[in-house]
Design brief:
There is one protein chain. Strands 2-1-3-4-5 form a five-stranded mixed β-sheet, with helices on one face. The protein is built from five helices and five strands; from the N terminus they run E-H-E-H-H-E-H-H-E-E. It is an alpha/beta fold.
């Protein structure tokens, strides 16, 4: 092997501020990374899959949900993670895109994604009861919080 790039990285294990389940669509990467920094998240375990939290709310097959839950459990085991951030975004190909999945209606899309995030949070809280869950919808103008209740499986209207 030939060394092609040098860098120094800390050898100490880290504690994870949040496992972040989000889509691999790179259009939102910069804005969402800045938002995570604003939340004080320095060390995250990113779990990037097509559709993000869709894998927990309406997966193509049960294996997708189990894979993501397994990644979250691994983050908890290895890095003492206590918080999971769920994200879905506008014009996501996994949902058919804004035009294909929602007829170009951004309001309908946002309402659908809010429901999806609540369903994902409820399923996550049932699978991993003592985890803190936050959920966000990202569009081309900003990031929108989905208000989840503190009680497991119960959501504020």
């Amino acid at each position: 092997m030939n060394k092609v790039f040098h860098f120094d990285a800390p050898r100490d294990r880290y504690l994870c501020d949040a496992a972040v389940v989000w889509c691999f669509d790179n259009r939102f990467q910069l804005g969402f990374a800045k938002f995570l920094k604003r939340l004080g998240i320095v060390n995250s375990d990113p779990i990037k899959v097509a559709g993000g939290a869709k894998c927990l709310s309406s997966p193509e097959n049960e294996g997708e949900r189990e894979f993501v839950l397994g990644q979250i459990r691994t983050s908890i085991r290895l890095h003492a993670t206590k918080r999971v951030i769920l994200m879905v975004h506008s014009d996501c190909g996994a949902y058919g895109g804004l035009d294909g999945g929602f007829g170009g209606d951004a309001r309908v899309e946002a309402e659908h994604h809010e429901t999806e995030l609540r369903r994902a949070a409820e399923g996550l809280e049932k699978a991993i009861p003592d985890i803190e869950v936050q959920a966000y919808f990202v569009d081309f103008e900003g990031i929108w919080a989905v208000e989840l209740s503190q009680e497991v499986g119960v959501f504020k209207p």
